[in-house]
Specification:
The chain is mostly helical. It has six helices and no strands. It has a single domain, classed as Cytochrome C biogenesis protein (Helicase, Ruva Protein, domain 3, Orthogonal Bundle), CATH 1.10.8.640. Helix 1 crosses helix 5, helix 2 packs across helix 3 and helix 3 packs antiparallel against helix 4. The mean pLDDT is 85.
Length: 159
């Protein structure tokens, strides 16, 4: 296989892997989720505005309790995830989001690690394939004579 066709195969493989990851993500996210599961997921996706490194779900701060109540009310009213989280983003900024947006530039954040791992795996597979094809070196008579001479010299010097 030529280098050009190999790179095309690798590129198509990476595209295929990315499509599978996106499809799995869509299927997993579109599962039948109860209201409580949705409230819990949304609460885990937002940072507590007064706690350092804690989600709204994990925090016992009064602000987090208010946010959980607002999330629960939004879910009960049938609002979308964006309709529920957008007011928090407006009030506290993008830092309130613990997970990057799954669309636009956020898609790059989600896809880049997958593509890097897939690219590394493909590069490793290509390298291993090339190494396995490398001809095995065989010692010539001159090589064996040189080794014998060096061993004899070494043995004389160490004795």
């Amino acid at each position: 296989m030529s280098a050009g066709s190999r790179s095309r195969v690798v590129a198509w493989a990476l595209i295929g892997i990315a499509l599978v990851v996106v499809a799995v993500t869509v299927v997993v996210r579109s599962g039948n989720e109860t209201d409580e599961q949705r409230v819990a997921r949304l609460s885990r996706s937002l940072a507590c505005p007064v706690c350092t490194g804690e989600s709204v779900a994990a925090s016992n701060a009064s602000e987090a309790q208010v946010m959980r109540r607002q999330i629960r009310e939004g879910v009960a009213a049938g609002r979308s995830d964006a309709e529920i989280t957008d007011p928090f983003v407006v009030a506290y900024g993008d830092d309130i989001l613990l997970e990057p947006d799954a669309g636009g530039l956020g898609a790059i954040v989600w896809a880049l690690p997958v593509l890097l791992v897939a690219g590394g795996g493909a590069a490793l597979a290509i390298a291993l394939r090339r190494w396995s094809r490398a001809p095995r070196l065989v010692a010539t008579a001159a090589d064996e004579e040189l080794v014998a001479r060096l061993r004899a010299t070494h043995d004389r010097e160490t004795s």
